[in-house]
Amino acid sequence: MENKQTICLLNDSFPPILDGVANAVFNYAQIIERNHAHSLVVTPNMPGADDSAYEFSVVRYPSIDTRKLFGYVTGYPFSPEAAHEVEAQNVSLLHSHCPITSCLLARQLAEAYDLPLVLTWHTKYDIDIANAVKSKLLQESALQALLSNVNACDEIWTVSKGAGENLRSIGYEGDYIVMPNGVDLPREKVSDSLVAETTSDFDLPSGIPCFLFIGRLMWYKGLRIILDALKELEKRGIDFRMVFVGGGGDERQVREYTLELGLGHKVFFTGAISNRKKLRAWYRRADLFLFPSTFDTNGLVVREAAASDTASVIVSGSCASEGVSDNRNGFLIDENSSSLAAKLRDLCANPERMHAVGKGAGDELYISWEDAVAHAYERYEVVLDNFRSGVYGRRDPVKGSWMQSQGELMQILGNIDAAGKALKRDLEETQEEVESSLRSMRNKAIVDAIATTYEAKQNLISIGNDIKEQLTEARDDLWEKLDRYL
Question: Can you give the pTM of this predicted structure?
Answer without folding.
Answer: 0.72
